[in-house]
Write a structure and sequence with these properties.
Strand order of the largest sheet: 5-6-4-7-8-3-9
Number of domains: 4
Number of helices: 26
Subunit structure: Interacts with the MHF histone-fold complex to form the FANCM-MHF complex.
Subcellular location: Nucleus
Largest sheet: 7 strands, parallel
Strand content: 5-15%
Main location: nucleus
Distance between the termini: 170 Å
Catalytic activity: ATP + H2O = ADP + phosphate + H(+)
CATH class of the largest domain: Alpha Beta
Organism: Rhodotorula diobovata
Amino acid sequence: MSDDEFDFDDAALGELDAIETALQSGTALPPRSLVNKPGLVQRDLFGGTVAQRERPPPKAGPSRAGTGGYGGAGGAGGAGGAGAGGGGETQAKVRLSKHWDRAAFAKHGWSKRGAAEAKAKAKGKRPKGKGRAYASDEEEWDEEHVLDDDDDDDGGDDDEFLIDTTYDPRAPVLPIKWEPHPEASKTFIYPVQRDKPLRVYQYNIVHRALFDNTLVSLPTGLGKTFIAAVVMLNYYRWYPRGKVLFLAPTRPLVTQQIKACHYIAGIPQNDCIELTGGTPAKLRSVGWLTKRVIYSTPQTVERDLAKGRLDPRDVTCIVVDEAHRASGDYSYCGVIRYMMCRNPHFRVLALTATPGSRGEAVQEVIDNLHIGRIEVRADDSLDIRQYVHKKSFDLCVLPLGTQLSALRDKWASLMKQYIQPLYAARLLWSQDAVMLSPFAVQQAYQKINGLPGGRKDNGKFFPMIKTLAMMARAMEYLVVQSVTSFLSVLKDIEGAGSKNLVNSSGFREVLRDTTALRSRVGYVGHPKMEKLRSMCIEHFTNAQDERDEYTGERRETRVMIFCNFRSVVEEIVDCLNTQRPLIKATPFVGQASSKGTKGKSQKEQLETIRKFKRGDYNVLVATSIGEEGLDIGEIDLIVCYEANKSPIRMLQRVGRTGRARDGHIIVLMAEGREEKNWDRANDAYNDVQNALTSNKTFDLYVDGERMLPADVKPQCEKVEIKALPLELDKLTMTGRSAAERKALAEKKPKRKVDVTANAPGDAFLGFRTAGQLAVAKKEKALPPSQVLRERKASALLTLEEEAQLRSRWQHDTA
């Protein structure tokens, strides 16, 4: 055999094939052998063993001391910053380099944007208005989260419960207020169930999150709430006098997480409380003082920290749900900034399915939440593959048809007279009226400043931009949404648009044709709506023949439809409900009322979900409120009424199916507009899934404090927890809602007061005007000639008096 030839070990190659087969099929790996044993030996070019230098012991930093070495399957990762243990975990590239600036709150306060505007104002600069510097989405949609938790009753504070909120950011950090329990801290409890095997990835994430501020990114339905409940349970045990906070963006999410965490961790409900903006301020003060596990919204916690109702030094653990919201001025950011300046001794666990659409967005979440470790799993991660169900996509491109195409072309020709001058001035990037978005038109306002002469010499463009923005919105409704919505925008333009446009023959023709089309008998509003109805009929008809593989009973199925605009949601519901009882559809929208539609309170939202789960409805037609967090139940079919450009929203929509069994997603797209955007949306969807595993290196915080002493290494104790039935009413301190208090105030009769009882008898009890009370000015004296002239005139008879006199005396003499 020559020096250039190799002899392959057939046994070793067979072992490699077995490993590859196991990884592809998701089965267990073969026993450790020659090719997959953990102990690797480094050799030189001649086959000799390279002497290994002895590694220096790791530095005993405060945030990493003793966190590894007892992790179970996969290991704890030791001093790593991301989930880099065994078990086929997806790894993120990280660098431990950041230190928290304790003066951050002193610089920015509760609002970074507010501080920036104040700074700009102090320098004499014009602050950037809402929707300018912070506009980030090219797509219009009804924002349903603007009323997260803002009806706070903030009056009537009782000074007995208030904490001093003054502080000096330059002062040394105070020691931790509460010491851990010496016996309880020797173990950490991990709940197990006999009928459900332990999931290794959950176990690994839990015990790492106990010792580091951790960002957990898991696909929807893989147990983020379980991880949170276990971490909360152990901090509840370790710190008998500390407080554990679970923060969720909306009240329905808060209520949902109370139920989930109770049955997972079994924390006594006497120590738990729900505190939101619906809880009166005085009762919240009592709740913060007497309870240890608090479920709340970040807006409420932010207000109560600012008011001094909550002592920041009492807090030992904060769980942040839907952590991707921790950007800009959202309340999550203000809470963590304030806590870090007053009490850096607390653990943070951040949960999300979609950390960010780009690496920069993920880094912002890390920066705002003081994250020191990342635990990420994607759909293809080896340790979760067996728990992930398949999701199939169908893309349905629909032609507009003859009538809608004719309307589109007529409307596009009207838009061109406004597009061309703006395009010539380089205020628009395209002349394609069909593809032009309202967002792109609005951006032209900012570009005017860059033209020669600025805003002063280019004022003629402002009315053009205003009119074109309304026309672009109308085009989007026509092509993507519905004829009814298009007609509604036409009427808005007729009332507030350019007179030249409204009075033109082209506009009147489009308005006349649209009205005639909308009033036609049997017209459903858009080809998408007609296709949607036929797909739902087919889905539920086929489901009638399906049987559950375990019970043999007819399998119930649910459909969820997502739409960007609430007005179109109502149209879809009306269209589908023509097929009752086969299809029973209901809208699921946010709180804010919009034009022609009334919002749903958060209580009504929860009731809608309950009825949907129970089977009163089998189709849920939702706006963005249905994308995030809420447990809506098992969904077999997701229909996206439009191809969404936002990758985070798309990922959240897709995550609504495929939880307990395989799911199906259908995306409806209008030919000529949406199909061109699908590739871009799909690429962005892949980017958001891979944001944490991209080539970007994330900078993590190295100064996250280890809460337990360095010599305390808790051992896992697996316990089967049987929680007592939850009495949710006992966990709320709502008192009376703002609406109830207002209604009672209106019903309460006013006490009648006799205002004349103590008044003098000659007192004037009426009302005098200011003119009546004013002293009249003296009239200016007339000249003598004028006085004599008036006296003479007053002494003479008038013509009428003279006629009466003549008539009388002539009659008497006769």
